[in-house]
UniProtKB/TrEMBL annotation, chain A:
Source organism (scientific name): Cloeon dipterum
Protein name: DNA-directed RNA polymerase III subunit RPC3
A cellular component annotation (GO) from this entry: RNA polymerase III complex
Protein function: DNA-dependent RNA polymerase catalyzes the transcription of DNA into RNA using the four ribonucleoside triphosphates as substrates. Specific core component of RNA polymerase III which synthesizes small RNAs, such as 5S rRNA and tRNAs.
Keyword line: DNA-directed RNA polymerase, Nucleus, Transcription
Family: Belongs to the eukaryotic RPC3/POLR3C RNA polymerase subunit family.
From TrEMBL, chain B:
PANTHER family, sorted: RNA POLYMERASE III DNA DIRECTED , 39KD SUBUNIT-RELATED
Any Pfam family matching the protein: RNA_pol_Rpc34
The name this protein goes by in its record: DNA-directed RNA polymerase III subunit RPC6
GO biological process, one term: transcription by RNA polymerase III
Amino acid sequence: MSGTSQHSQLCSILLREAYGDLAEKVAMCLFRFGDLTFSQLASHSKLKQSKLQTVLKGLINFGLVQFEMGVDAKSGTQSNTPIYNLCKGRVLFLHRYIRGVPVFIRKFGTEGEIVLDTLMKCGHECASDIIFQATVRILKTESDQNVASVLEQIKGKLTELIQFGLIERAPSRQTETQEKLSDFSTPGKNYSLKGVDLPMMVQRISNDILTLEDAEDQAILWQVSRKRVTQLLRDEMFAEALTGRIDCHAGNLVRVLLQLMADTGPAMADASNILHKPFIQSAVKNSYSGSPLEAHLSEYLQILSQDSSSLVKNLGDASGGEYQITLKSAILELTWSALEKITQEQFGTKGARIFRVVRRHQFILVDDIQNHAMLPPKEAKQILYTLVGQNFVHFREMKLGTGSEAGKTSTSYYFFINLNQLVRMCLEKCYLAQFSASVRQNDIVSKYSHTIQKESRLTSLYVTLKDQGAPQEQLEDIAGMLTLTEREDLQKIGTWRSQLNFSEYDIDNSILLFELYIQMFKGKI
Amino acid sequence: MDTAKVQAKILDVLKSAPNGIDEKARKQLFEDCDSSNILTVFNGLLAQGKIEILADEHKNLIYKLKEANLIPGLEKIEDQIVYDHIARSGNQGIWVRDIRTKTNLPMHTLSKILKQLESKKLVKSVKSVLAVKRKVYMLYDVMPDSRVTGGTFYQEQEFDVEFTDLLTQETLKCLTKKAESVAKLETGPLEILTRSFVTISDILKFICRTKIFNVQIKDNDIQKILQCLSFDGKIECSSRVEPSGETVECFRAVAPLISTPSIVRMPCGACPLSEKCSLTGRITPSNCKYFTDWLNLDSNELIQLFFNQNRKMSGAAGPVGRPMKYPYTLSAKIAQFPFKWHVNNQWIWKYYLIGVAVCTPLFYKIQKGANSAANKAKWAESQKKSGH
Ligand code: SF4
């Protein structure tokens, strides 16, 4: 998908906030002009070559920019000029990652989340460095822990995350060493980290040396897998939907089924391979042993296969039951459901009813809409035209011959929903919403910058004086320097910022759904 | 035989032969009369519209009395023709423009005839729900079709919103009550699901028990309401086989797949101005009023709002629907108009009060001074001096 203005605005503001002005400038050049060579990039960004090099290095480190060797136009062979391009999905990935944090903690514990966070902060890194930095972070808060055991634990978590696929191999800094170290490379179910020297790390931490140099595996880099995070959040989205529709056990069954789909074939296929009931049964037993889900598995499978969510399809009764995950139809259903709710929020219950009537009938005349929606004709028309005005419903003019007189035609207007167009419109609205929340937040910060700065100055002064053992009176005086209005303002700013932050990440849920729809029904986003 | 007698005889004969008489029978009956005279009389009757000539399958002419002639009081041929067309339209009725096209009568004549027919209580006009401001005519004693009157959901040809809403609420209540009561059962999930379905007759019984409605509600009406609820995404339909072997449709309340998509949890998702919103210009995120209102919502209030919304969506209790964020009907606009804000922010209200507060003591003083005993005496004196 070529970037729309909303998308570009959002990318620009996110890049500026997370990686600074220069990074934003270079990345947005790539966003606007597409693939560029180094010299083209230098001329577009108007940066000095040395500076551009540093910026590009940083962007490549974080996986935001990729490069490949260009092709010589004359000879048709590979040239030595790298061509850079921006990975647009990776720019918005930060929001998706943050939204996934509660899921990571639930699945891999706090240590697992710290490993992922450490890796997110540095873009890509070798296993030794990840383990070392994560351990240092944990020891900072829990200094009484045994260093060796923490290192062992973190290594175990890293292995688990690699096996789960949340951490994947990143392109190596030196291509030639990649070949030599191929025995480290292919992660599989029984993958173990070679080249990680834990005793050396214990020694360094005991000697208070908090950096690692010349790790044996430094050429093998790892990064957080965008694909796997997206897939995990997609599974959660389905599980939540079915939890709301049926109950939590149905939600858990969906988690198991989607995991089985990923284990037995491509995770993003239109439909999964056939899953036999005994296979599902053993997977449920592994994850939810002793729960009502295990006891009533057949019933839950039947309910899911009859549900209008269209996620599970019963293919037959061979081997106790054959089931298939029909991801494409489920995404379609979920998208419709989301769009109906959006219509309900914007146009009220009656608007949503008309929207559903049009959806159900595909092509429908205004009189029939009135009839089915059970609304007074005038009101139905008014709402329908508002829906048309906001591009939720579309119409087509049809000229039909009357039959009575030659050449005489009557015009009818058939109403319908252009789903692809509507999804794209809503996706753009999501980008706009994230952008607006970000702008508003910056606006709040700049408007109250004086108060925020004053508070941080006073806090640091308070801490310093307290450390120096200043008398209570003096401390109270400092605390009193913040007026009542300023205190109220600070409280207000805190609430506003957390509300805006939360919404910014929360919207990613809708973005994920719409992107999945576009991916499934229209090829690449 | 003179013409009047021939005419009377013809009409008598035709009255006694409802299927009409053919050419042969006519000749036999009027053997004794002058044939040219007979033909003149027949032509006269034909022109008056009292009789009609038809052809049977062997192309023989059949003379028949026109049915409208049986209606007393319709003398003129135009009246009969109009009456005929109205009678033929049955319980669907006929629009005045269609009568005009079919009869080719001028509008004012047609209106006069229709008025006359109405005053004689031979026909009646009925407002059709199919098109506003369109009246259809049908015979006086014909019951209009439900497509014309709209059926149970229409009262005096107007859609009865209150009745429909109430019936929808009660139907949904029946379904949710059933779902809630079976959810408490300690059985397997499939059993709970199966037992949460109700049939149309169950719903009818429930509605009868409530005794809210004083009109008779039929299966068809409930079916329409259920269809409407399914359009609202609140119920789903299935079918089951009864012990009698008959397959019946059954329904149950369902929760939506997505309760509130994250995009509409903030104002931009449902913003009608999003296309005009950018970093520059009149509408920007920094000065957005929707944002300000949303940020100033008390977080407890926000939680309450979501909670209520979810409860309504799951159809547990409370009225169906919720106020729209951006109202477009006049009454909704009035209901949601920020009166309080305008009172607080318009200068006139404040200064009006200040003005009253300042002026009251002043006027009081003037009034008191003017009506004091001394002043009155002074006034009387000055009046006296001027000789009044
Ligand atoms: S910032 Fe305000 S005006 Fe702009 S899209 Fe969001 S709600 Fe609408």
